[in-house]
Every structure is written in C-alpha cells, then in structure tokens.
Design brief:
The protein is an alpha/beta fold. It contains 29 helices and 20 strands.
C-alpha cells in the first residue's frame, strides 16, 4: 500500500466522521430526555407533610440536630393553578450550589441536569454553581457556574467529570466556617450534596449548622453499593435503592455474562469475579440474578449461618461451641469446593464464581480482626497525634508493634484489645493478607475492602482443600461414557473388560463415569490392574487406558477479575437516567418549598414509572450511633441484604439449578448491554422487581 498524505487524509470528511469523539450512539444518548414524574408537569409543586411515617429517634440526634430532627416526610405534589403566594415562592430567583461527594456513580450528571431544568423552568434568572473536586471545592471556594452549554454536553453520561468529586468531610468547626463563608459569598439559597451514607450524614450536620443563616442543605442518595436505603419505624420503604446501583450491577453482569460464555466455550477455567460492595452484598445479589453464576456468595448469609453439626457435637460433650455461629473462612472454602467437585464429576471443569468484595466483613474471625485493628490504629493516631501507617511503614514494623501490645497484655495481666491469642492467629494468616488487613483506612476510618484481594484469600484455601480431595481420590473429572468406549475401542482395547475395574459407576446408566477413588496415581492404577489379573507385573498400562486416567485428573485453573471502577463509570441505564433526572427535580421542589435537612427521594421505584412518587426524606431521624475511627459517631445506617427477602429466597431456590452439576447445558443468563431506552425486562433492578412481585 502506497503511503498516504497525512494532512490530506486526516482532513477527509469521512475520516473526520469516523474518528470524531461523539459517535452516533453518544449523540442519541445526549439527546435523550428522561420522562418526568407527573407531579413535575404542573405549573409548580408544593410539599405535603406525610405524618404516617414515624421514626425511632436516637437521643443523640435530638441533642445534636435540634432544628431538623422533627422534619417529617414530605410528599411532592403538583399544583396546576397555584395562588399568587405559592407562585411567587416557587418562581423566586435562586442561587443554588451542588457538590458531588464520595465515589462516582452513574447518573450524577442527570441530577445536575434535573436541578438546572427545574430551576430554569421556574425562573430563567436563577443560577447554579458546581463546586469542583467535591467538598474541597466548597471549602476552597473553587467553583464554576453551570450553564446550559455545559449541562447539555453531559446529559445521560456516566461519571462525575462535569465538576468531579472528592472524599473530604466537613466535620470540624473550621471547615464549617469555610463552607459558610463560601455559601454567603455566592449568596446561596441552597446547597445540594450528592453522596452516600457519610455524605448525607454530612448534609444533615451542615443543614443544622447553616440553619440560622437561612441556607438550605439537601442530600441526594448516591452509591453503587445499594446500601443507602430508607425505611420508617414500621418498615415502610421511602428509598428502596440509591442511584448508580442498577447501572453498575448491569455493567458487571454484562461482563460476567461474557465470562460465562467464554468458560463454557474452552471449558478449562473457573472465573472468580469479585464485585464491589463494601458492607453489603446488594450488587452481588443483583448481578447473580442477572447472570445465574454457578456459585454466588452472599456475605449476609454467611453471617447468619449456624453449623448444626458442631452444635450437636458440643452438646454431646456438655459444652457450647460459639464458633458454630457464623461461617468461617475454612467452611466457606469447603462449600465452594463442593460445587467445584460436583461439576467436575459431570465433566465440567469450569465455571463462574461471584464474590462481593466485602464478604470478609461477614466472616466472624476476620471481622474481629478488622474491628480490633481499626481501634488500635485510631487510638494510636489520637494518642500520638501522628499517623500509624507513616510511623510503621513496613509490614514487619506493624507486626512488631502488635507483638509488643500482645506482650504487654501477657506480662501486665491487664485487659488489652490485642492479646497473645490474637497475635498467634494473625500470624497464621498469609503475609499478603496480613498486609491487606493492615492497609491504611479511608478518610472515614473504614477498612478499604476494595484493596483486599478477597478472591485470592478464599481461592487459596479452596486450592489447598481441592488438593487434599484429589489426593483422597474424591476430586475427579467425570469421563463421558461414549468417549470412553470410542477411545478404548479405537486403541484396540475392550472397553467392557476395563470399565468395571476403572469406574465406580460403570454398571449404572450415568452418562459420566467416575474413576474409582483408590486410583490416585498411575502406580495405584497399575497395582489394581495387576491384582485383578488384567495385567502382568511387567506389562505397561495400555495407552488408551492411560489416556482415560489422565483425563480423569482435574486441572484446576482460575482467572481472577475485579469489577468496580469500570461499572461505576458506566453510562447510566434508562432506570438511572430517569431516576436521577427526577431526583434533581425533587431537590429543586424541596428548595422551592424552603425545606432543609431532607434527602430527595422517589417512592415506588419498584413499580411502573407512572407510579413513582417524589418525596423529601428527613435525614436526622434515620441516624444512629456507629463506630468510626475508634469512636461512636452519628451516621446514616447502611442497609444490608435481607436474607428473608423474596429476591434472596429466589436465589436460594435457584442455586442448585445455577450450579448445574449434572450433564447438559448450564443455566447462564445473558442480560445484554446497558441501554437508556427503557425497553426490556431489565429496566428495573431485578431485586426490586422480585420483592415487589411477592407483595402482590
């Protein structure tokens, strides 16, 4: 091929069209306008207190958040013909600030678009300011004015790159003073904080601090983990899921589905998929329903596990085995091994395992280590006014400090959070896992599960136990009966002469044959053949028989995958596009009605879009005390997977089918790519759909 004139070629219209940043799919996504809830199609909105919802209020909340603690749930109602007073209040010129806080989640840009469109439809002179790089932008007065041109370039797109995000907490008097100064300088009427449980907790405290300044503070529920939910004291749902969850779960599911297709094609790998979910397994549950993996681990189920065999054994000995409550790492590895062995027996030396990243938090022995180490690190930082990870840089330095704590507890005989037993158990863990348990905590003092190679920890134990089972002859590949006959007969060996000797189920109708457990090597195989008189001592094992034996020896190979940052940066689904756009309109309705300390929400997300109901959810009454950085602090409670929920019960009932430890095809499900058109069975999270169907 002759060389091309670069300048001429690059200026060719079709080359420009082919290499442009905005392809046709992106252009269509940018032009998509999500539908509005019916209430927003009126001239304006107003709030109606819904006193049916009550909360169990912690005394500390009333002490620290007195001006917003009695906020009720507010229903957003549309008003077609408002009176003059309502109209003037709704159409008042507003200065609104918005900030992203925490990790990105698909749909954040549409929250901004919703606030902007609602604000400008009420009063074209209103202004929206975006604080750059998260809360730091608020503290440093680093912002941009968000114009229609900026917003049009980001509609329905993933990420938070319009104004970016950060994890700084506004949790000191000095920081609150800086935030107040910035808000006043911009003459802000309201500040919208888009974030997760910690960020909405921050919103509540800021609402209290800025209450007398007349600056409203509203929250918007964001986290792909799906653990930011809201219910009243009777269990009535106010917020069933945070935005970004559906998109991330669908993105992960699509990628995992591709692995299902791959592993069943070359039939030689077990794909181990760790999915995001720090303190709850919602993403794992949703992805499981979307894909039907062979093995799905749900952390909350492990925490509720009771080993009845160990309890009975202890009872006979007149004792109580408290370690029987909650699944151990070792037991979990045995459960996974059982599925692998059973699939191998029917010729399936492959599969897909889905594990939530935070599953170790539900393993009692590991959780105890995490709690103790969190406290030790926080206490060290407070006592010495320095940083534990800076002072003890290497793993050996950290371990030496723990040894000193254990030695002090032993020598002085006083209570210590870290004792000799802790030290001995911790030293039994692999070095890489010790290092991961001692990694630096995040800005909130939380253990960073996303940094732990959870799958490596679990699968290391799995591989060790599979080797034991293989040495015992209990882990073998099933041999297809027809292939066995063809292999021996093509090699000139009578299949029926060797079959009863080789296989434990040769006389059955099973399509897959299992080599006898005693044949753990070619040596033991030959010994048995000689003993039966089939071979003489000096004879070699016939090559077809040797081939069959070698095929019965499983070769366990894994490929590890982590699904996290890719999913949270995905372009949003129809559900998240529409959900977040309406959350933006809801936030403006709360602002227009002079509400503060509320979180924008949409009720009935599990139902058809026509039944979605915008509401304001009071943040303060839902807060409780929780250990953070070694101290108790008021925070929004994270919601874990309810193992009694219909969605989980479906998974429990389908597990055997998904394992597919029988001849025949696997039960893999193809969820397809993420769409924004709202068509198809997956336009809502499947967990919400199943839980809703059970109520009807």
């Amino acid at each position: 091929m002759a060389p091309v004139n670069s300048k001429e070629f690059l200026s060719h219209p079709e080359v420009i069209q082919t290499t442009r940043t905005h392809n046709k799919v992106m252009e269509k996504r940018l032009s998509f306008i999500p539908e509005l809830c019916p209430v927003f199609k009126n001239a304006c909105t107003e709030l109606h207190p819904d006193m049916r919802h009550r909360f169990k209020i912690h005394p500390a909340c009333r002490d620290q958040l007195p001006d917003i603690i009695d906020n009720p749930v507010q229903s957003v109602a549309g008003v077609a013909n408002p009176d003059e007073h309502l109209s003037q209040r709704y159409t008042k010129k507003q200065h609104i600030g918005i900030v992203f806080s925490g990790g990105p989640a698909p749909g954040g840009h549409n929250v901004i678009a919703g606030v902007f469109d609602a604000m400008r439809s009420a009063n074209p002179d209103s202004r929206l300011f975006g604080f750059l790089m998260g809360p730091d932008g608020l503290l440093e007065s680093n912002y941009i004015e968000l114009t229609r041109e900026i917003i049009e370039a980001h509609r329905n797109l993933g990420g938070f790159y319009m104004i970016r995000t950060g994890r700084t907490k506004i949790d000191t008097k000095a920081k609150i003073a800086l935030a107040r100064e910035t808000c006043k300088a911009l003459d802000l009427d309201a500040l919208v904080i888009v974030g997760g449980d910690d960020s909405n907790t921050n919103a509540a405290f800021l609402a209290q601090e800025l209450y007398n300044d007349g600056i409203q503070v509203l929250g918007v529920p964001k986290t792909i983990d799906g653990d930011l939910q809201a219910k009243d004291i009777e269990g009535n749902s106010l917020c069933t899921i945070s935005f970004g969850f559906h998109t991330a779960a669908r993105a992960f599911a699509h990628d995992i589905s591709n692995l299902c297709t791959d592993c069943s094609s070359d039939a030689k790998y077990w794909h181990v998929c760790r999915v995001m979910g720090r303190s709850a397994s919602h993403i794992g549950l949703e992805a499981g329903l979307q894909v039907h993996p062979n093995i799905l681990v749900i952390g909350e189920e492990l925490a509720e596990f009771i080993d009845t065999e160990r309890l009975e054994k202890a009872k006979k000995q007149g004792t109580i085995d408290y370690t029987a409550y909650g699944m151990t790492l070792r037991h979990l590895s045995r459960v996974i091994c059982d599925g692998i062995v059973r699939r191998a027996a029917v010729g399936k030396n492959y599969g897909v395992i889905v594990i939530p990243e935070g599953v170790l938090e539900f393993i009692n022995e590991i959780q105890i280590f995490i709690i103790k180490l969190n406290t030790i690190i926080a206490d060290y930082n407070t006592t010495h006014d320095t940083d534990f990870h800076t002072d003890f840089f290497t793993l050996e330095e950290k371990l030496d400090y723990l040894r000193r704590l254990a030695r002090l507890s032993r020598e002085e005989g006083t209570f210590s959070i870290w004792n000799t037993r802790d030290d001995d158990l911790f030293n039994d863990l692999p070095d890489f896992f010790q290092e991961e348990l001692l990694i630096e905590r995040d800005s909130h003092g939380n253990f960073q599960f996303s940094q732990v190679q959870t799958e490596k920890v679990i699968m290391g134990l799995v591989k060790d136990y599979l080797k034991i089972l293989q040495d015992k002859g209990e882990y073998k590949m099933g041999i297809e009966r027809l292939w066995y006959h063809r292999t021996l007969e093509s090699g000139g060996v009578r299949a029926d002469a060797y079959g009863p000797l080789l296989f434990q189920n040769y006389d059955s109708d099973d399509p897959y044959l299992l080599m006898r457990p005693s044949f753990v090597s070619l040596k033991t195989l030959k010994q048995e053949l000689v003993k039966s008189g089939t071979l003489d001592e000096e004879d070699d094992i016939p090559s077809p028989v040797k081939k069959i034996y070698q095929a019965s020896v499983p070769k366990f190979k894994t490929q590890n995958h982590f699904y996290g940052y890719d999913g949270r940066g995905n372009d949003p689904t129809w559900f998240d596009c529409t959900y977040t756009y309406n959350l933006g309109w809801t936030a403006f309705s709360l602002i227009a009605a002079n509400a503060t300390g509320q979180m924008a929400g949409i009720k009935h997300l599990e139902k058809d879009f026509s039944q979605w109901k915008p509401i304001g959810i009071p943040i303060a009454p839902m807060m409780h005390l929780e250990e953070r950085k070694g101290r108790l602090a008021l925070v929004l409670e994270r919601t874990t997977v309810d193992i009694d929920s219909p969605a989980f019960q479906v998974v429990k009932a389908m597990r055997e089918k998904w394992l597919a430890a029988e001849p025949g095809p696997d039960d893999y499900r193809r969820p397809g790519p993420v769409l924004y058109a709202g068509e198809g069975e997956d336009d809502h999270p499947l967990t919400l759909t199943l839980n809703h169907l059970a109520k009807n």
